[in-house]
Amino acid sequence: MNNQRILGQHLTSQEIFKEYILPKIKDNLNDFAWIDLYCGEGNLILPILELIPIKERNHFFQEHVFLFDIEKEMTEKAIENAVKYGISEELARKNIKQHDSLANFPHMPSKFPIFHITNPPYLYIGYIQKHEETKKHLKYFQNNNKGYQDLYQIALINDLNNNTENMIYIIPSNFLFSASGSNKIRKDFLKSYNIKEAIIFEKQIFDFTGTNVAILFFQKKQESNSPISFKGLKIMDHSQTTRDYSLTPENKYRAGSEFQDFVKNKQNNLKINYYLMQKEVDFNSGNNKIEVIDSNDYSNNNYTKKEIKVNDNLSKKIKNNVLFVRTVDSGSSQRAGLYSIKDEFSADGILVSKNPYRTNPIQLFFSPELTKEKQLELKDYFNSTLEKLREHADSEFMTTYKYSKAKYTRKYLGLSQVRRLIQTFPIRI
C-alpha cells in the first residue's frame, strides 16, 4: 500500500498553484505569514519566492514562510527546494519543520497574520477503519472530533479552533456537494467562514486518487451562521463554466440546493424499502421458484443468475415489485435512475447474498403496493424528472463517483435522494 492510501497524501504540482492560486494573492505577499501545515514538497508556498527579488528572499522567508509536514522525507524535500530558491539551509531548516499538524496546531513565530494555503491529507474514515495500515489515523477522530468523516475535515476544524482568518484549501469537492459525509463539517465550519470563490475540478489533477477536488478560498465571517454566496469556476476535460452558488444553513450549507427545493413539497406518502436480503429468503423458504441475479456475484460484465425457492408471500412480494435503482452512472447511456428488473436482467428479483452495497443495483419494495403499470409510470416520471434536475443544477446535488475521459462525469445518487424524489410522484395513496 503506497503513501497516497496510507497517509491520504496527494502532492500538488506547482502548475496548479501558479495558475489558480498565486494570481489571487500576489498583491498581498508582504501582508501575511504564508503557512502550509501539510506542505509535502512545499509546492503551495515556495513558488511565492519567484516574485521576491533574490537579495530580499532570505529576509522575506524568515518573516513570511512557515512549512510543516508529518513526514521527515517531505520536510527534507521542502528544505532542498527552498535552498534552490536561494534560501540558506540554516534558515530553511528553521522555518520548515517535521510536525503532526492534525494532532497539534504548531506555533508560528511571526508578527504577521497567518494565511494558510494547503492541500491537506484526505482519507475517508470508512477506509481508515477497514485497513490495518491506516487505523493509526483513528486517533484524530476522537473526543471533540467525533463525527467527522475525513482527515481533511480534521484539518479544517483545527484552523477553525485556532481562529485562522484566511485559508485556501484544495480538498475533495464532496465538501460542497455530499450529504451525510459532509453535513457535520459544513455545519460546524461554514457557520464561521465564508467561501469567497471556488475552482471545482471535474477532471483528474492528481495521479493517485479518483477523488474530484476543489480549490476553496475561505475567509472568517463577520456574522455567524449567515448564508454564503460565491462564484465557482467548474473545470472539466472538455469545457469550463462559471456558476453562482448560494449555501444556506437551512440546507446545511450544501451546494446543489435545487434538488432540495424541488423535493421539499412531496406529493405522496409512499414508503420505500431497499434490498432483498439473503436472510429474508432463508426465513421465507418454500416451493415457489424465483429467478434472481446476485448483486454480490459479478464476473465477465454480468451478475450471476440464481434460482431461489420461497414461500407464497415472499414470491408475491418479489414479483410484484418490478423496479430497481441504479445509483451510479455506469455509462453515458446507463444513467442513475429507476429501471425494470425484467428488462435489464431478465430476472424477477435482485438478491443480496452477502453485504449490501449502495453502488450495486438495488430492488425497490413499495408500501402500499403499486400495480406494475403504476410502477412503470413512476419509472418514467422519476427518470425524466431526474434528468431535468441534473440539467438545471448541473448534477451538483449528486456525488461525483469516478473520473471519466468521456463527456459525462460519473455521479452517484444517494438512496435518501431516491426516496425523496419518488415521493414527489403525483399519485393518490
Characterization of the model:
This protein has 429 residues and is α/β, with parallel strands linked by helices. Helix content is 30%, strand content 27%. It has 2 domains: 3-255, Rossmann fold (3-Layer(aba) Sandwich), CATH 3.40.50; 271-422, no CATH class. A hairpin with a 7-residue loop joins strand 18 and strand 19 (410-412). The longest helix has 22 residues, at 372-393. The termini are far apart.
Whole-angstrom Rg: 25 Å
CATH homologous superfamily annotation of the largest domain? Vaccinia Virus protein VP39
CATH topology name of the largest domain, in short, is Rossmann fold
* Overall mean pLDDT: 91
> For the largest beta sheet, what order do the strands appear in spatially?
3-2-1-4-5-7-6-8-9
Instruction: List how many beta strands DSSP finds.
Output: 19
Which CATH class of the largest domain is shown?
Alpha Beta
Helicity, as a percent range = 25-40%
Biggest sheet descriptor:
9 strands, mixed
What low-confidence regions span 5 or more consecutive residues with pLDDT below 50? Answer: 4-8
What would a concise description of this structure say?
The chain has 429 residues and is an alpha/beta fold. The protein has 2 domains: 3-255, 3-Layer(aba) Sandwich (Rossmann fold), CATH 3.40.50.150; 271-422, no CATH class. 30% of the residues lie in helices and 27% in strands.
